[in-house]
Amino acid sequence: MSQHVYEGMFILDSNRYSRDAAGTVSQIPSTVEQLGGKMLASRLWEERRLAYPIKGHRKGTYWLTYFRLDGDQLTNLSRQFQLNEGILRNLVLKIEPRIADAMVEHAITGGGPMAERKPKVEEVAKVVVEAEVIEVPEELEE
Predict the structure, then answer these.
(1) Count of C-beta atoms within a 10 Å radius of residue 107
(2) CA–CA gap between residue 77 and residue 135 (Å, rounded)
(3) Residue 29's CB: how many other CB atoms inside 10 A?
(4) pTM beyond 0.85, yes or no
(5) Segment holding 114, helix H or strand E
(6) What are phi and psi of 109, to 5 degrees?
(7) Rounded-to-integer distance, Cα 8 and Cα 78, Å
(8) How would you class 125 by CB atoms within 10 Å of its CB: exposed for 0-12, middle for 13-18, buried for 19 or more?
(9) Please, which pLDDT band fits residue 137 given cuts at 50, 70 and 90?
(10) Between 112 and 16, where is the model more confident?
(11) Beta strands 38-54; 3-13: pairing state
(12) Is the pLDDT of residue 88 over 90?
């Protein structure tokens, strides 16, 4: 069977990730490589509070990966991720071959929610300098 490019989004146990980030994350590429795949990109997406508890956890670490794998190995891969206690949830999607290279390049260069949230120092300074002080009339101070 031919290999396809897949995008994998994982919600990792934040407690395990904070104690041993490298150990927790290294299980993802090792699982892909055991099944004959090749990891193309793997990086932190973001850490956030979950909308609802998953396996008793209220906070999760989102990890984004792109990998190449035979299509017939997807069920084995999914089963291995379900058995892994460090992975709370996972979603694997097949990427359209025409855009696979662009998606992997974007993941490697660091686009995503964490990049968007970090304002540059110059932008923060500009906001602080441009802030106006508004005086409140004495009768409204009570």
Answers:
(1) 19
(2) 62
(3) 15
(4) no
(5) helix 113-117
(6) -75, -10
(7) 10
(8) exposed
(9) low
(10) 16
(11) unpaired
(12) yes
Hunting for tokens 């909308």 — which residue is that?
51
Of the CA atoms within 13 Å of residue 51, those in its CB half-sphere come to: 0
Q: Alpha-carbon Rg of the chain, whole angstroms? A: 21
Q: Tell me the pLDDT tens digit for each residue of 31-80.
A: 999 999 999 999 999 999 999 999 999 999 999 999 999 999 999 999 99
Cα–Cα–Cα angle for 81, 41, 38, rounded to 5 degrees: 65
Q: Token digits for 78?
A: 């999914």
DSSP 105-140: HHHHHT-SHHHHH---HHHHHHHHHH----PPPGGG
Dihedral sign of CA atoms 104, 108, 109, 110 in order: positive
Which residue's entry shows tokens 């892994």?
84
Among the listed residues 86, 19, 32, 27, the one whose alpha carbon sits nearest the alpha carbon of residue 54: 86
Phi-psi region of 103 (alpha: psi -120 to 50; beta: other; left: phi over 0): alpha
